[in-house]
Each structure stands twice: as structure tokens, then as C-alpha cells.
Amino acid sequence: MPAETMLDPRYSDPEAAAGDWSEAVARLSAAEVYWLTTVRPDGRPHVTPLIAVWSEGALHFCTGPDERKARNLSANPRVALTTGTNSLSEGFDLVVEGEAVQVTDEGRLRALAEAYVKKYGEVWRFEVRDGAFVGDGGTALVFSVAPRTAFGFAKGDRFGQTRWRF
């Protein structure tokens, strides 16, 4: 649970209420596509869409060890993961900021592999081997991002910006 929940009045309707973290978690769990922002070695941002699962208080994603995002994470683990809608008149957008930590525990990886299948179907079934996922595309490193700070953006009749700090 967050240590602090705050509605920012600068970006919120006067009648808006702070978002509930449990509802944000439900949205994070249900989302199908997320956008990951990492930092390149020269400081430029790198943004890419990916799939992820929410488990044990964190978002989890995977990437090949030679992909740009994995190379970025080896130098700088700070990330932002976003999800929501591209509509201005309805929906709820979420931003999760934290550090990506590689998951290598094989028991944990097996549980995450099953979570991928449950959420995305058999096409996303992975074997667990040598501290990583292994699938048709080769080896994939798995990362966990526990929120340090998260933001929720309510849209529609009552715009609101909630910040959760952990």
C-alpha cells in the first residue's frame, strides 16, 4: 500500500477525489499493453510498448538480453511504465516509476511464466531455464518494477491527478 496518496489540485477538478490505489492495481493488472521508458547511455529516452503482468506488488516484463531496453537497464535501472487510454474524454491513465530489478529465482520465474499464460494465452508460454524465460524467440530476461511513485490521471467529467508514494 502507498505511504501517501495525494490529489494534486493544480491538475484536478475542484470536485475530483484522489484515486484509490486498489483500483489502480486492478487497472494495472487488467491492462494488456504498457509503454516502458528507459534511459539510453547518452541520456536520451527510449520508449517501447510491451506486455507485462502485475504480481506481488510489482509489474513484470521481459526482454531479450541484447535488446535496447535490456542494454539501457544494465546501465540505469530507473524506468517508467505507463498504461491507459488514448481518449481525452474518458478513461484513466497510470504511470509507475521505479527501478527495474532482474528476477532470476526459478520458482518466482515459473509463477510469472504461468501468469503470462493466464493473462495473454498459450502463445506467451515460456520455459524457465538458467534464471530466465526461454521461448520461441530465444532467451528473455525478466524484470520487476515495484512502484516508488505512481500517478493516476482521471479523465472525463472530473479530471484528476493522484500521486501515490511508496
Automatic annotation (TrEMBL):
Signal peptide: none annotated. Keywords: Oxidoreductase. The keyword Flavoprotein does not apply. Residues 23-124 form the Pyridoxamine 5'-phosphate oxidase N-terminal domain. The keyword Membrane does not apply. SUPFAM superfamilies: FMN-binding split barrel. Pfam families: PNPOx_N (PF01243). PANTHER family: HEME OXYGENASE HI_0854-RELATED (PTHR35176), PYRIDOXAMINE 5'-PHOSPHATE OXIDASE-RELATED FMN-BINDING (PTHR35176:SF4). This is Pyridoxamine 5'-phosphate oxidase family protein. It comes from Streptomyces lateritius.
